Amino acid sequence: MKRLFLAVFIALLFSGKALAFPPTPPASSGGSSVDLSEPGPIGATTPSTGAFTAVTQNGLTQYFYGQSLADDGTVTLPTITVGAYGNVAIGNDEERASFAIDTSGNVNLMSYSDNITANADTDGKFCIGTSVANPVVVKNRLGSEKTVMITIWYK
Question: Which of these, 47, 53, 109, 116, has the minimum number of CB atoms within 10 Å of its CB?
Answer without folding.
Answer: 47
